[in-house]
Description:
By secondary structure, this protein is of the alpha+beta class. It has one domain (4-123): Tetrahydropterin Synthase, Chain A. 22% of the residues lie in helices and 34% in strands. It has helices at residues 60-75, 89-100; strands at 4-17, 23-24, 29-30, 36-49, 78-79, 109-115, 121-123. The strands form 2 sheets. It has a 5-stranded mixed β-sheet. A hairpin with a 4-residue loop joins strand 2 (23-24) and strand 3. It starts with a strand and ends in a 6-residue tail after the last strand. The mean pLDDT is 89.
Amino acid sequence: MDKVTYISKKYNIRCSHQLQICTDDNLNKSKENSLHGHHMDVIITVKGITDKTTGLVSSRDLIDKVAQEFIIKKYDKMLLNKIMELPTGENLVQAMTDDLLASPIKHLLHQVQLKETNKNFFTGPTCNE
Length: 129
């Protein structure tokens, strides 16, 4: 039986957002509501059976091309409020997952992760299970 292998690739985007309506009722204070930016890491994980001829699950160049076209072009150097109504890390990782599920690697996509800060990481849903 063939075994599944996972490949993860990391990309960096720089973007900004303003969380105007996010509040935490438990703390009774507003979250960061000023316009601010982040250097975020986006980790794209694909999975598949290793091709017996090439020894690869997927071309690394294809993953890079898809990341450039579907993630970096859309989100890098952007004010996220212009792209989505509530630009939280939770919503951003979901949107990136949706973007990649409309890409040429949709059949290989396993998961998208987002590192917003050293303290805040977000993991999208598991795909193709």
